[in-house]
Amino acid sequence: MLSAELSIILLNIAIILVAYLSVYPTLAGNDFNKIAFYDIFTSAITLAIVGYHYWGSDYQFNLLVTEVNWFWYTLAVYTAVEIPIMLWYFKKHRVRVRKEPE
Fold first, then answer.
1. For the packed helices 4-18 and 70-93, what is the interaxial angle rounded to 10 degrees?
2. Are 81 and 13 contacting, i.e. CB atoms less than 8 angstroms apart?
3. Which residues cross the membrane (predicted)?
4. I need a surface site. Which of 5, 34, 82, 94 has the fewest CB within 10 A?
């Protein structure tokens, strides 16, 4: 059986890979605003799944230097997993954070 920490990490990896390899190229392309909009939903899905399981529990997750609840652990791990994949996607699809003057 997987530990609680590992199951959340694997869930985050799965959701982020589906988003960046399938959903974002199809629906957002290289539009930063659309990527950010859809990313709100993908992170909310992760938080909803983990929250459904751990809401109201006193389970503490080990975040290297401190113990945190499910919400902060999920958010921190999601961010840590997403940043390198996001940077790869932005480079591959030439995503610009701000609009170029026309």
1. 30
2. yes
3. 6-23, 35-55, 70-90
4. 94
